[in-house]
Amino acid sequence: MDIYIDTANLDDIKEAASYGILDGVTTNPSLVAKEGVDFHDRLSEICEVVDGPVSAEVVSIEHDGMIAEAMELTKIAKNIVIKLPCITEGLKACKTLSDEGIKTNMTLCFQPLQALMVAKAGAFLVSPFLGRIDDIGGDGMELIQQIRQVYDNYGYQTKILSASIRHPLHMVQAAMIGSDVATVPLKVIQQFMKHPLTASGLEAFLADWDRAQAILKSNQPAMA
Ligand code: G3P
Q1: Whose CA is nearest to atom 5 of ligand 1?
Q2: How far is CA 66 from the centre of its chain?
Q3: Distance CA 127, CA 104 (A)
Q4: Cα(52)–Cα(24) distance, rounded to whole angstroms?
Q5: Are 146 and 181 in contact (CB under 8 A)?
Q6: Does 211 fall in a domain?
Q7: Does residue 210 lie in a domain region?
Q8: Residues lining ligand 1, CB < 6 A?
Q9: Is 185 within the bounds of a domain?
Q10: Which of 124, 168, 179, 212 is 20 to 30 A off residue 95, Cα-Cα?
Q11: Is 194 a known active-site residue?
C-alpha cells in the first residue's frame, strides 16, 4: 500500500520522508492557502524532497481553464499529478490530459459512479474523501469498498487513493479493503507505530536490562 502525506507544509513532508515510507504528497487549495506561500514555488520545493507523485490541484472549473493550469503545473517537475474535481468539466479534462500521457488525481469523489466515470476517462488516481462522509453521518469506508469492487469487476487500473483519513482505524480498514494508496496528515501517520503495550513493554525490557547490569557490576571484584 502506498502512503502519501496530505499537506503543503514542507517541514511535515520532510519529517514523513525521514521515516523512509513516504510514496507521495497530496495538496489541495485549502492546504496551500494555510501555508501562505506561492503555490508553484512550494510545489517545486516539495518535488525536491519527494520523487513520487505530488498532486497539484487546479482552481478553474471549466475544461479549457483546467488544461491551461495543468500545462503550467506540469512544467514544475516530472512527478506532478494534476488534481481535478469530480465534475463533468473535470471528467473532460481528465480524458484530455490522460490522452496526452499526463497523470490525474480525481478529487472530491463521494459516490462510486464518479469513480467509474473517471476510471473510464483514464484517471491515474481517484480520491474518495471518506472522513467527510463519516462527518455527515455516512459510511465512508463503504464507498472505498464499492469502488474497489467496481474496479476489480472491470479491471480498471485507476488507483484508489483513500483521502480525508482522520485516524488509524480508517487506515487499517482502507488497507484491508485493498485501497491502493492512502493520503494521511502527519499527526495521523505518527500514530501508526504507536501502541501502549509497545511502550510499556519496551520500558520493562530496558528497566530489566539496567537492573541486570547493575547486579553484574556489583558482583565483580573491586580492582586493586
Ligand atoms: O486532500 C484531500 C483530503 O484528504 C482532505 O481531507 O481532512 O480536509 O477532509 P479533509
Answers
A1: 164
A2: 22
A3: 10
A4: 5
A5: no
A6: no
A7: no
A8: 6, 26, 28, 129, 131-132, 163-164, 183
A9: yes
A10: 179
A11: no
Domain count, the chain: 1
Domain that holds residue 141: 2-194
The answer to whether residue 212 is domain-embedded is no
In this prediction, residues 132-150 reach a mean pLDDT of: 98
CA dihedral 95→44→59→38, nearest 10 degrees, is: -170
Instruction: Tell if the pTM clears 0.90, that is, is over it.
Output: yes
Q: Check which CATH number belongs to the domain holding 57 and give it.
A: 3.20.20.70
Q: Where does the pLDDT of residue 224 fall: very low under 50, low under 70, confident under 90, or very high at 90 and above? A: low
Confidence bin at 174 (pLDDT 50/70/90): very high
Which listed residue (83, 92, 95, 217) is catalytic? 83
The confidence band for 222, taking pLDDT boundaries of 50, 70 and 90, is low
pLDDT exceeds cutoff 90 at 221 = no
- Which long-range contacts link 66-73 to residues 24+ away (Cβ below 8 Å)? 66/90, 66/93, 67/93, 67/96, 67/97, 70/97, 70/102, 72/40, 73/40, 73/43
- b/e string for 46-64 if b means 16 or more Cβ within 10 A? bbeebebbbbbbbebeebe
